[in-house]
Specification:
The structure is a single chain. With about 475 residues, the protein is of the alpha/beta class. The protein folds into two domains: about 1-150, Rossmann fold (3-Layer(aba) Sandwich), CATH 3.40.50.280; about 160-395, TIM Barrel (Alpha-Beta Barrel). The chain contains 18 helices and 14 strands. It has a six-stranded mixed beta sheet, sandwiched between helices. The longest helix has 26 residues, at about 435-460. It binds cobalamin and iron/sulfur cluster. Iron/sulfur cluster binds near residues 240 and 269.
């Protein structure tokens, strides 16, 4: 039996990263003697044509082929192209999919695409393995299989992640173009943000919100990475690094890794960053910590079901910066309910923190997937008729916000590559030691804030339509 796992091609100006999900599946299957290849067309920046040629060559190896695809909301079209292609050139191959997008849309996808044989719902390791070792017409927990749809049973989550083998390392440091390896210490998050798929995804298994690895297991994997690759930095890709109110995991991990010098980046909820934890994170070697501030506008935070107000983000940024840790603030500038003063509050928040923090490009807006819990709120507010797939169409309450967004996009898109050329380095390594790059990055961010504030003012003075686009084009001319 041969298994191929595919991360589809997709366009991105960002540097490549490992697909930990596929890397975990490969390690799990190979520990059970099932030969598993990964085609990460996204990370290797392959075109769809190159991806199809690889698949054609791969299929020549064996008749007993299983091909699993990990589609994202953004790769829906390539998912269809690849799936149809495989079934056309090799009708006996079994084609299945897994991950957030496939799991959350399982009924629609299996009903619509005849070439798709099954969807692994939720956490993948055990369900996939059991699907492979059983005859294909047998019902297995966690597998939503064509012909057995009404017999679907949920797969329980793996409660102790220490039982899993360490994820496979299928990309070389060269292929990662300087990005650090990724590692997970937990899966899931106790939060219930209405725009996020994490909690809906793991509910497809059961109601356990977060599962963990022990500090000893995490430390053993990191020591192995140091031995094998001599690494000096790592990215922890947990949804939320912190577990509960206890500091034990962090304290123990710091002890376990005290013989190494590794820099880390990770993500956490703002309310989980305390003064004590910020100090401990510094001891661990943390250089960059992402926090989900999301918005400085109170009504938007309530809509997002964030469960905290913006003061938690202010404090988290302070604690981190007091300890020389760069804070990467995840922020959603525009959303369908925000008003003009809300956008201004957002601008002022960015302005207040841009001297010690990093932001993704601030033209970010809320992307709403059909399966996000927030959709119900928009329907209630009369802003959505549940049209569109995989993203749902939503009307903006205030049409002027949409216009500001469109005009501001023109500005941001003209130098997006330049922005991320700096931002990617800073987001990977932090501001400390990269002052030069940070100064250049900050100039761009300052200019973004200025331009957005000007657009807001034009809107307040009722001259956005007349002057907005002209103004942005002039700014673009001046920066040439
Ligand atoms: C690190 C990360 C990235 C990295 C690496 C991406 C990657 N290829 O994995 C980067 C920065 C490149 C990235 C980019 C994007 N990401 Co991202 N990312 C994450 C993050 C934070 C961690 C992923 C991870 O390693 N998880 C840990 C592993 C163990 O879990 P897993 O990937 O879910 O895999 C398990 C199961 O899902 C399942 N499984 C997954 N795939 C498959 C496939 C098969 C065949 C099977 C059987 C099972 C299976 O089995 C795995 C083991 O149990 C997640 C949040 C999260 N925690 O998942 C978001 C997340 C996966 N990203 C998301 C999005 C939207 C994106 C982008 C589309 C963003 C954008 N607009 O460009 C791109 C798409 C990139 C791409 N095509 O690869 C969404 C996906 C939502 C969706 N419905 O599609 C997530 C869930 C965040 C969120 N809550 O919105 N991302
Ligand atoms: S805190 Fe982050 S990972 Fe947790 S539910 Fe909210 S957005 Fe998702």
């Amino acid at each position: 039996m041969m298994v191929l796992l595919i991360n589809l091609p997709g366009e991105s100006v960002r540097k490549p990263e490992e697909h930990c999900g596929l890397a975990f599946l490969k390690a799990y299957l190979e520990a059970r003697d099932i030969c598993t290849d990964i085609l990460d067309a996204y990370a290797k920046r392959l075109s769809i044509t190159e991806c199809l040629s690889y698949i054609m060559e791969w299929l020549k190896q064996d008749d007993n082929c299983y091909i699993g695809i990990s589609p994202f909301v953004t790769s829906h079209e390539n998912f269809i192209i690849v799936g149809e292609y495989i079934k056309r050139i090799s009708p006996s191959a079994i084609v299945f999919a897994g991950g957030h997008y496939a799991s959350l849309n399982k009924e629609y996808l299996l009903r619509t695409y005849g070439w798709l044989d099954a969807i692994i719902v939720g956490e993948g390791e055990i369900s996939l393995y059991e699907m492979l070792i059983n005859p294909f017409n047998v019902n297995v927990a966690g597998v939503y299989r064509r012909g057995l749809e009404d017999k679907f049973i949920k797969r329980e989550r793996i409660k102790n992640l220490d039982v899993l083998p360490f994820q496979a390392r299928y990309l070389t440091p060269n292929e990662l173009e300087g990005q650090p390896f990724a590692i997970t210490t937990s899966r899931g998050c106790y939060g219930e943000c209405s725009f996020c798929s994490i909690s809906s995804f793991y509910k497809l298994n059961d109601c356990i919100k977060q599962t963990f690895r022990s500090p000893q297991s995490v430390s053993a994997e990191i020591h192995r990475l140091v031995d094998d690759y001599n690494i000096s930095s790592l990215k922890i890709v947990d949804d939320n690094f912190f577990r509960d109110k206890s500091d034990d995991f962090l304290d123990e991990l710091v002890n376990e890794l005290s013989d190494l010098e590794i820099s880390f980046r990770l993500s956490a909820r703002p309310n989980d960053i305390t003064e004590y934890r910020a100090k401990k994170l510094k001891e661990l070697g943390a250089t960059v910590i992402g926090i989900g501030a999301e918005s400085a506008h109170e009504d938007s935070l309530r809509l997002f079901n964030k469960g905290i107000d913006i003061s938690y983000s202010d404090r988290a940024i302070k604690y981190l910066s007091d300890n020389g840790i760069t804070c990467l603030v995840n922020f959603i500038m525009f959303n369908p309910i925000i008003d003009i003063d809300g956008v201004l509050e957002n601008c002022l928040f960015v302005e207040k923190h841009m001297h010690e923090s990093l932001f993704h490009r601030i033209n970010s807006h809320l992307w709403i997937r059909t399966t996000d819990p927030i959709v119900d709120k928009f329907v209630e507010l009369g802003l959505c008729d549940r049209q569109g797939f995989p993203y749902i169409e939503c009307r903006y309450k205030n049409k002027e916000i949409l216009r500001i967004r469109e005009i501001f996009d023109i500005w941001c898109n003209h130098n997006m590559k330049e922005y991320y050329a700096d931002a990617d380095i800073l987001m990977a390594n932090g501001i400390v030691g990269n002052k030069h790059i940070y100064e250049h990055y900050k100039k761009m961010l300052e200019q973004d804030v200025e331009i957005l504030k000007d657009l807001v003012m034009m809107c307040k003075e009722n001259r956005l339509e007349q002057d907005g686009e002209k103004y942005v084009r002039k700014c673009m001319e001046e920066t040439k």
